[in-house]
Amino acid sequence: MIAIVAAALLLAGCGGTTKNNSGGDSGAGPTSGAADPNAPTAKDLKITFLPKQVNNPYFTVAQGGAEKAAAALGEQLKATGPSSADASSQVTYINTAAQQGQNALLLAANDSNAVAPALKAARKQGMKVVTFDSDAAPDARDVFINQASSQEIAAGQVKLISDAIGGAGEIAILSATANATNQNAWIAIMKQELAKPAYAKITLDEIAYGNDDDQTSFQKTQGLLQAHPDLKGIISPTTVGVAAAARYLDSSSYKGKVALTGLGTPNQMRKFLQDGTVGSIALWDPAQLGALATYAAVALASGQITGKQGEKFKAGELGEYTVGANGEVVLGPPLTFTKDNVDKYNF
Amino acid sequence: MKTLLRWESALFVLLVLVVVGGSAATGGSFLTDRGAFNVGSDLAVMALIALPLTLVIVAAEIDLSVASVLGLSSALIGVLWNDGWPLEAILPFVIVVGAVCGAVNGFLVTKLGLPSLAVTIGSLALYRGLAFVVLGDKAVADFPDSYTQFGTTPVPGTWIPYPIVLFVVLAVVFGLLLHATTFGRAVFAIGANEEAARFSGIRVKRTKFILFVLTGAVAALAGIVYTLRFASARADNGTGLELEVVTAVLLGGVSIFGGRGTIGGVVLATLVLGGLTDALILDDVATEVVTLVTGILLLASVFAPAVTHRPTRGTP
């Protein structure tokens, strides 16, 4: 009964609305004047680095890159963040950064919409918001630093597996969850790639889902090899899946006979690259991702860019970057790790 | 009873320390209007659920499924909104579903006589599973601004977030229910000694059943607040929140053995926890340390009454 009273109270404050007649979001965030590419780079900017969760090795490397770039420009960067990567845990930290009057925020969003209201409020008071790794709603941030285009990632994966199996044979994909947005986008592009004449001798047998869970991915790999005795190769475009698949291959009689590639971190995959279980994997360099996000934030806070398409900014030793459609900046093609270069990376 | 009063005084002192220390350490940005709004918004969801859970724990039971009911409520909002239901219909509906979830817990505990700890660990998984069944790992976010403003803007002319208004209303309601009604006295009697309560004519099973239904309904209501505040309906919303809520209730001086506790103490405890967390984050204290401090507070709150006032339940 109390809950019903409360519901009535809750309802009372709101006008009648259903999905179909809901007013559209009033849209674009504040656009603060025109960009001046020759504006001097501001010093001593206060920048907050907010990863999906703290103590995640991937983001620790990204943070290292961001810190280096900030030091090179003479800015103050500090890292903070929640200990769990659930949908809403970042909102408190965004509000806090705004309350502290930080000049810019570098954010890898856990949920693109849950963070949007807090980001919009922060931007209204002048904080610049750069998302990296995973985007927030486009009208809630200034610029998104994308690690690599979906096209480059997916086409690269197909190329790696084709090279590993000599351009002919049956392959399978071990993905994360069945409705993960980025995974499905990549798989769609992989299918387009496989339809090209260059890959005519490769057939895609099955797409399995390991749910980004180590044990499930391990068992799915086992299942794929049982179900398809002629399987020549597996693509696993997820760091959890590729590591589990490598462990299974390493411990089975398929070692050396079935090729594996995917998106993996050097530290997880070093052993398997070195002992020949896996020929090559790909991933972007998270340190460069963090650095590029920092350069973009400083360019925004200095007024050199505003986040419009076509604007250019300098990113230290990474070179010059151009803002693309929807305020997106692409870091570049993914790196390929093999046993020859894997020791140069530590993440 | 004296121990309890002393514990609440201790909480009040702690709250003052948090406010004064927080303001000093963060150079004045802690209790600005903006800061108070943030603290209020951050603690509202947890504080709402703590109210009915206080009554459950006073009655010597527990409900660990609350955060899963919150997630199920959020997932249902997303699915029904996608189906074109009006929010005016969705919101009461999910509260009814929450009450039904509570009723299932209540049925298993009272009719089948199962321990609530085991029952609600099971339903914790069951309700979270249902949430994923109805919505999958999608996020629904296209709610109209007029509704999401409920969670993201203060009451006009003040710093007070709307969910805190809701919390204050429910705190008064649950405070009166526990401390000023025969129902409340029955809850204390059951928690202190269930046998004795039964022999003195208290309808033990019915009372407990009502408590579980209320908890389920308020957890679903918290799911609505959560969904609108973050403008994001997801099945994984509020994962792990049950432990925060139990922390707040126990820190509020409610005995985990039942029979003792006040709504006032729990309200103070939610303010202490919310304020402390925000002040520490604002002061750039590492996340791990924030968790650690919460853990120490919880241990202290269980330890202090246990030393001064040993539980007598089971050894009449």
TrEMBL record, chain A:
Localisation per UniProt entry: Cell envelope
Gene3D superfamilies: 3.40.50.2300
The organism's place on the tree of life at top rank: Bacteria
Domain Periplasmic binding protein: 47-304
Matches recorded under Pfam families: Peripla_BP_4
Region described as Disordered: 20-40
InterPro entries assigned to the protein according to its UniProt record, in alphabetical order: Bact_Solute-Bind_Prot2, Peripla_BP_I, RhaS, SBP_2_dom
PANTHER family linked: ABC-TYPE SUGAR TRANSPORT SYSTEM PERIPLASMIC COMPONENT-LIKE PROTEIN, D-XYLOSE-BINDING PERIPLASMIC PROTEIN
Protein's name according to its UniProt entry: Rhamnose ABC transporter substrate-binding protein
Automatic annotation (TrEMBL), chain B:
Record keywords, A-Z: Cell inner membrane, Cell membrane, Membrane, Transmembrane, Transmembrane helix, Transport
InterPro entries membership: ABC_transp_permease
Main location: membrane
Cellular localisation: Cell membrane
Membrane topology category: Multi-pass membrane protein
Transmembrane segments: 35-57, 87-109, 116-135, 164-188, 209-228, 248-273, 285-307
Cross-referenced Pfam families: BPD_transp_2
Entry keyword annotation includes Transmembrane: yes
Protein name: Autoinducer 2 import system permease protein LsrD
Organism: Kutzneria chonburiensis
